[in-house]
Design brief:
By secondary structure, the protein is an alpha+beta fold. 12% of the residues lie in helices and 27% in strands. A hairpin with a 2-residue loop joins strand 6 and strand 7.
Amino acid sequence: MWHNSKTNREGDGHRRAAGSRTRGRAARTAIMLTGTAVLALASATPALASGGAPTHARHYGRPAVELVAVTPSPDDVAGAGGVFSVDLALLARDVTGNSELSAANGYAPGISTTLGIGRPDPFAPGLVVLLSTTPQAAGGPDANLAGVFQLTDIASSHGLIQVFADWEVAKAGAFGVGIPTTLTAYLVNGTAPGIVTGSEQPISNVIRETFIIGG
């Protein structure tokens, strides 16, 4: 299986990675404590996506949910020996975001026991996560990796829902070693597809950042 750990960043939605579970919890705590401040700092402009992902988020103005990559950061060397982490935060901006991230829509805390590439996260069903170096044997760059995220946490800050999704990539070199890869992530309504086609309509900003898988 494919698995991951947590890290910590600060600033405009691209927080600086720190590389340990303890500091990852600190990053999560910082997000929870700062609440609306993090939302104000996070970028509201969706970046271009790669592969079959949509080239922009099809919404007007700022989306009701802000997606933040807690780790990795752009241009980071993440992990070592082909083992690295992806830690995402889904932050409601308003009551619409609360509705989109609600238990009624399937968002709940949980630990996934049936992991698999090309399927949605059972506890964050609208999440789409792609890596440009996903091997073709596992579905290729358009395969949704949300189904291999092991842990989903739910929190609230200033009355706004926060969903944290964590993936610890434990199979060394599964996505490459010492090479750049591009992370693309966004949220859709309902249940995310197993394979993206480019016709998806994000309801969040679209994250696109390139980092190095540590060798």
